[in-house]
Specification:
Layout (H helix, E strand, L loop, with lengths): L5 H5 L3 H28 L10 H22 L3 H5 L1 H23 L6 H20 L6 H20 L4 H17 L4 H19 L3 H12 L10 H13 L23 H33 L4 H25 L17 H19 L9
Length: 369
């Protein structure tokens, strides 16, 4: 395993690092604000313990920072050498570890699927880089890629975790496009991929119910699938321009899991339009720095790995915000770096470490020609 010394660390993208730190601080504050009422009144191990989720989030944050520092110092080319091992571990995690762990732990804060997504992105980056110009060939590029992605996404859907599978598909498609896929391949992918997604979506009644409620408006089922979207929109509306004030949200007593799936609604209510837009701009800045790192990567593999890791976090943040704002059907998705959740926070920070390692090995300008 190769590590880089302090002089290489200095060359890393410090803007990305600082943006992540700001989001982590926002997250810790908002997890406390959104969860203390939830912890006081809900049944469970946290009943009557208003700081329960905040303390756990602080532990997850420290673990995540440790993971970030580790992956920051490990040369990202190491993952390429063990790509097959990573794929096997990813499959085993989805087939065995995730179901068994969920049965034993019974906790939403521990999600092996999050780690599996990182493993899948690493392998896909290696696979795409190795195929080079063959990506443009349908039989050598598109079909094998679709089979690989479909297999991994299918295992994630079986957890069941439909939203994570869709995020992985979107991320892998972005990587496929950057790797050199032409427009014909993308149109074929969207056509058959869209049919497959619709088929899977309507296999489960709760998924189809959510889509119908979204299409007809949440008021069409106010006490069912429309309840959470309605309460999220109420929270955003109550926030106005400047918010009702930190810690004074009323919707956190109504929303289900306001510290995870609904945290952006609480941000909008307590910090207002200005606070919500500021958070969105922080993600936009993070995304810009991430794609800049990808452009400056010293090789195609590094570029694709960076694109994958950045796209995953960006798409997940966009989906969370879109769901809260009523722009997408309801699905349980956390806001990266901000929402409560151990696996999500640790893996997201580990991914930031990989991005920082790619940046410290870059040329400082567009490095892939």
């Amino acid at each position: 395993m190769t590590v880089r010394g302090p002089r290489r660390i200095v060359q890393s993208d410090w803007i990305m690092f600082l943006v992540v730190l700001i989001l982590l601080v926002v997250g810790l504050v908002m997890v406390y604000s959104a969860s203390y009422g939830f912890a006081l009144f809900e049944d469970g191990a946290y009943e009557g313990r208003p700081a329960y989720f905040t303390k756990r989030q602080a532990i997850f944050l420290l673990a995540g920072l440790g993971a970030m520092l580790f992956t920051w110092r490990v040369d990202y080319h190491v993952y390429r050498k063990f790509a097959v091992h990573i794929l096997v571990l990813t499959v085993l995690m989805l087939l065995v570890i995730a179901p068994v762990g969920r049965w034993i732990v019974r906790s939403r804060s521990i999600q092996p699927v999050e780690l599996a997504k990182v493993g899948a992105i690493i392998y896909i980056a290696v696979w795409l880089a190795a195929h080079g110009e063959h990506i443009r060939d349908i039989s050598l590029g598109l079909i094998p890629f679709a089979l690989l992605l479909g297999g991994i996404a299918g295992l994630i859907i079986a957890q069941p975790d439909f939203s994570s599978a869709m995020l992985l598909i979107a991320t892998a498609t972005a990587m496929f496009f950057v790797a050199g896929a032409d427009m014909r391949q993308l149109l074929i992918s969207f056509l058959f991929g869209g049919i497959a997604v619709l088929a899977v979506m309507f296999l489960a009644s709760y998924r189809s119910d959510r889509v119908r409620t979204w299409l007809h408006g949440p008021l069409s089922d106010p006490m069912g699938e429309g309840f959470q979207p309605i309460q999220s929109l109420v929270a955003l509306n109550e926030g106005g321009w400047l918010g009702v004030g930190l810690g004074t949200s009323q919707q956190k007593f109504v929303l289900y899991a306001p510290h995870t799936d609904g945290i952006f609604a609480i941000i909008g209510e307590e910090l207002g339009f200005v606070g919500a837009v500021t958070v969105v701009l922080l993600y936009a800045l993070w995304t810009w720095r991430g794609f800049y790192i990808a452009r400056c990567a010293q090789d195609v593999y590094g570029m694709l790995l960076a694109v994958g890791l950045v796209s995953w976090v960006t798409f997940q943040a966009a989906l969370h915000i879109a769901v809260v704002a009523g722009l997408a059907p309801f699905t349980g998705t956390v806001l990266p770096f901000v929402s409560y959740g151990g696996s999500s926070l640790v893996t997201s920070l580990a991914s930031v470490g990989i991005l920082l390692n790619i940046s410290q090995n870059s040329t400082g300008r567009e490095g892939v020609t």
